[in-house]
Amino acid sequence: MSLFLIVALPFLGAVFPALLIRAGRNACSWSAGVTTLLAFIGLMINLPAVLRGEAVTARLDWLPWLGLNANFFLDGLGFLFATLILGIGLLIILYARFYLSREDPMGQFYTYLLLFQGAMVGIVLSDNILLLLVFWELTSLSSFLLIGYWKHLPEGRQGARMALAVTGSGGLAMIAGMLILGHIVGSYDLSVILQNKEAIQSSPLYLPALILILLGCFTKSAQFPFHFWLPHAMAAPTPVSAYLHSATMVKAGLFLMARMWPVLSGTPEWFYIVATTGLITMLIGALIALFKDDLKALLAFSTVSHLGLVTMLLGFGTEIAAVAAVFHIINHATFKAALFMSAGIVDHETGTRDIKRLGGLRHLMPVTFTIAVIASLSMAGLPPLNGFLSKEMMLEETLHTAWGHSHLLVPGLAVLAALFSAAYSFRFIAHVFLGPKRSDYPAHPHDPPVGLWLAPAFLVVLVVTIGLNAQAMVGPLVKVAASAVTGGELPYFKLKLWHGFNTALLMSTIATIGGLILLVSHGGLERVWNALPRPEAKTIFDAVIRALTGLSRVVTDTLHNGAISRYAMIFVTFTLAIAVYAYFTGTMTLPTRDAQDAPLLPTLAWFCLISATAMLTFLHRNRQLALVLIGVVGLIVSLSFNYLSAPDLAMTQISVEVVSIILLLLCLNFLPKTTPVDSSLTIRVRDGVIAGVAGVGSAALIYAVMIRDFSFPTISEFHLANSYKGGGGTNVVNVILVDFRGFDTFGEIIVLGIAALVIFALTEAVLASNVRAYLLNRKPEWPQSGDAHPLMMVVATRVMMPIALMVATYIFFRGHNLPGGGFIAGLVAAIAYVMQYMASGFTWAAERQRIFYHGIIGSGVLIAAATGMGAWFNGLPFLTSAFGYVHLEPLEEFELATAALFDLGVFLAVLGAVMLALESLSRFAWQPGMVTEHAMDINPKRDDPPPEPDPDADPDQPATEGGT
Amino acid sequence: MELLLATAVGVLTASGIYLIMRKRTFPVILGLSQLTYAVNVFLFASGRLAINQPPILNKYAEVSYTDPLPQALVLTAIVISFGMTAVIVMLALSAYLSSRNDRIDLTEEPGDDA
């Protein structure tokens, strides 16, 4: 099976549990199991090739110019890890099916689990470090979901956050390290990087890259001093702990260290950082585990300790240590997953994980007892179990390792750690299963159904068989995996139980006997331990997080104090400062154009504009007056456009003006009618000065522009020359809009549509809140007109409706050659509709509006898009227009252009957007009791039988239409 | 002529900027509208002023045309700024209806409902 498929299967399969949970919990878990099984089988098909020492590859260029390729390769190391991930994944899926209770959302669980599984498989099979980083981050995210699976538990949420914060920030460091590595080598492909040991180790950037990558590995694999997140992640359901925290996620850091071993190891830096960290972690983890009463916490610290062991072995940098590391990874995954599952069973059946409340379970739960004892003894490192073999190899290696000048330090501390390890393993057996039967278990303990113990039992069988017959069971696999780690030939080795009486055996014996002594004296030691002051990692972590949050809040609050007027002031002042700087440092040529004379008419208009603006600025507190004045300004701007040879602009501006004023009027209906004085005179003078300077600046700038010619030839000449030849229209502005720059226009109608939808959504949200009650109970501020829908206005608007629409059609069609077009026609049509709303009332108009405005916007955008795409069928780029001339009797010859179809899209989008915006706003004014059967005296539906044909009924209608 | 237009742009800009520094939503909306006029006229004028030279091609005579490109850009700008104004109006209205207060600053001063 292709490697792509192996990686993709868990991700694809993640969809099924979430969907199939409706078909029941069994269907849900079967779907997860079958997906994993398929991926597992696909992996196993590659076993012969891997054992031959070949690397299976699958390559796909994804973003080659970034060096990011979806390249996968499968060698011994990747195969070993993928087997652990998928194999133990299968067992976990079985176990979780029986572990989770009915209240737990099982579909979510399996979906998260498969996502995590896919990300892990992705990590171990990636042949591109950027791709690896993507999967690495995915494991952090999916493990966050899994650890926080019991959302109702605060410990679960906190543990998930802590795990994400620690592993996520480590991941960020690792990204930097990987980028440095890729920079040194010049390629992001692992297979290339692994060939460049000399280049990397001689680079001055080796140490930073090493430290950054190790930060990622150490946080992920819970190495000291980042070990603290792992015990808190134990708030997760036990299947998650068994999977993530024994076999997979915490091993990702080890995997990466092993993967990078050929190029990063062998230097003193590597030895002292990695081996020392591993040694300390091994020792501290084992020591703390001895005094933990929570079964899962004990196992968590034990995991920390064993991860430290493997890290230390990798840090030694010798080939045989790498073999031992690989072998211990297998052994630890088997016995630790079994132990987590046993702890879960104990928790499930007795209702507690507190060792102090347990004991004497061996007769009550004989099956669990057997499983747990075998797995614990393997963890303690007793023969003939697999834990013994790799521990012996580890002890043997420490004997050949000197730290500084001391030959005794590493072996001595390793024995001590092994001693603690034996002690907590014995404690796990003795204090949970041995001893007298108790009468105060929270529940009645008994062995679980077979579904729960089958998975750990299978693992325990592996523990025993690997222990008895290591070479046959896993020898070849360890060999290919270890040679993938070292990247070369291995010295001869054979995994076997009995090495004769040697120093390592002596050390093991000391550790075991010492462990038994510690178990016996545990009570006294615990009192001493509890009396000692110890730093509590969670308190420190919380304090750090609190400090960081506080810091970011201070920074944010200083920059953003919520005073928008202040931001505006700062922005304008800053812009002015830049402009002043540019003015004094730049150069300006002399004027090249003469200013034109100003006839009387423009001068009059100028006076109108200036006085309206001045009045608006000084009298803006009277809001209705301000609206009138801004209308005057808009009108004069439209007239100026017309005067200055821009008829299209004039038409657009004046129609926009109409809808804008209606919009503002609608809004003012609800807002206060006056603006109170908020700022002191000083502030107002200050603002006035800033605004005045800005005004002078912009006036001077545009004047300077207007009395000079273009510095460069403009592209306008091209548009003028090609408008008719290439676009088939004589109105150059319209041809630019629908043809030359059609893509801009296309974007713009989409933006307009989105704006209208935003308005609609806001209206929905506000009307769904308690604002609705306020609006319904609102009393008019002024006496209302008795004549809500004046007869004359109703009649006039209805008569005008078809005329206005005809005008819109006319403007639309002539747009290509004469002033007009889709934008203007859309606005004119919108005004025609708005008039109906204003004259006859919202309810009346809305009832007759059968097509949703959303649909009109959508169809407009779709028509424009479809027109643009039509060009593809002629092999031309998007939005290339075509046109031709048609002669139909008795009509004159006329033109058909695809641009007109595009313009139709513009027309519809503008019409729909304007109408949706205004209609949404006027819905605020709706009040019950204003539903009128007939908006005016004359019933337009005379065919309907009117209930009371009373022609004078209208003035009694109680309410108004939102001030329109 | 150029001077008239330039001073008009200046006055519109000054008025717009003064109004957007006010502390209530409605003057800010008015200020944005004023600024929109100023910016649109500014952009339009960057194509230089011309009278009686609309960019409508004349098939029968050789005549000169004004610059069509700023016009096309300003045309869409007018329509888009309507959309923007509508959204801001809606935001202002929703904020006022939700809090019965049309101040734009989030400062702790005791606000009145005006």
Describe it for me?
The complex is a heterodimer of chains A (964) and B (114). Chain A has 39 helices and four strands. Chain A is mostly helical and 964 residues long. In chain A, strand 3 and strand 4 (894-897) form a beta hairpin. The longest helix of chain A is centred in the N-terminal third of the chain and has 32 residues, at 154-185. Chain A is elongated and about 115 Å long. Chain B is 63% helix and 0% strand. Chain B contains three helices and no strands. In chain B, helix 1 (2-20) packs antiparallel against helix 2 and helix 2 packs antiparallel against helix 3. Chain B is elongated and about 65 Å long.
Task: Describe the secondary structure blueprint for this structure.
The complex is a heterodimer of chains A (964) and B (114).
Chain A: H1 3-13, H2 15-20, H3 25-45, H4 47-51, E1 56-58, E2 72-74, H5 76-99, H6 106-125, H7 129-147, H8 154-185, H9 190-193, H10 197-202, H11 206-220, H12 229-232, H13 238-247, H14 249-264, H15 268-290, H16 295-316, H17 319-350, H18 366-380, H19 386-399, H20 409-432, H21 450-468, H22 470-486, H23 503-520, H24 522-531, H25 537-559, H26 564-585, H27 600-618, H28 623-643, H29 647-668, H30 681-706, H31 716-727, H32 732-740, H33 742-768, H34 771-776, H35 791-814, H36 822-840, H37 842-848, H38 853-873, E3 883-886, E4 894-897, H39 898-922
Antiparallel strand pairs in A: 1-2, 3-4
Helix pairs in contact in A: 1-3, 1-6, 3-5, 3-6, 5-6, 5-13, 5-17, 5-21, 5-22, 6-7, 7-8, 8-11, 11-14, 13-17, 14-16, 15-16, 15-20, 16-17, 16-20, 17-18, 17-19, 17-21, 17-22, 18-20, 18-21, 19-20, 19-21, 19-23, 20-23, 21-22, 26-30, 27-28, 28-29, 29-36, 29-39, 31-32, 32-33, 33-38, 33-39, 35-36, ...
Chain B: H1 2-20, H2 25-45, H3 68-99
Helix pairs in contact in B: 1-2, 2-3
